[in-house]
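Our example pasted here:


***
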Amino acid sequence: MTALYGSNFLKYTVTLMTGATIAFAMVLPAHADDSSEPSVTVGGGLAVGPLYEGSSHYAAFPSLKLKAFLPTENWGKFTASFPDGLRWDLPGLSPFGIALLLGYDQGRKERIHTLGGRDDYLKGMGNLDSTALVGAEAYWMLPAGRLFVRGLQASQSRDYGGESLGRTAFLEAGFATAYALSSTLTLDSTLYGTWSNEKDMMARFGVTDQQAARTGFDEYHPGGGMRDVTLKMGLTWQLQPQLALEGGIKTYALVSDARNSPLTGENVGAGAYLNALYRF
């Protein structure tokens, strides 16, 4: 890796940006996004981050964003986006809300594709198949932002490393908010913790006896529990009514059994992205 993609450089930069942004945001009033009109947003750019959660290997990846939003008078709000999936916010519950979710777990390849080629750090682990995720979110709209709890479960059982995982599942709880820094600049932030069942922890941080025999990793069977605490922050600059630039950071800290996995090279990780967006 070049110095630009080094994990230490990226984490130090993200730490400085995070501290400065939080301090700035604390003195600003929250605002609600304008979500009264249907829209379609497309965009893309570059992302830099760890190969997987807990990895000490960093690389550059293409960053893609697609989002279609359709509010209705009687049926709530419908959102389709990549990479998040489908979301249906049910009507008539304000300031509380319930959303039905259909997401996607892309699984994991033992040879991970990056802009620089293929990384073979996980060679011998085998491939974890992708699967659809189904779940729901409950939230409470407050003056300062949105308090939420959401859970997602794999729609099918999967095998990994010669063992059956069953249906992986995880639960996220946290707080999201948005601030208007100016008429053209918006700051979004989300802080949340994640709890994983034993199957999800095994998919992300476990090593079966078959995988241990094929790699240099020790066999490891983590239990279910808290997985990580994550902070996401993004800035959107509206250049024109349809054209915008967005950049953001994501930092996480692993906890519980995730920290002790032989696949975990660093307990704290960070990533960043920069996209150009066009809204129809």
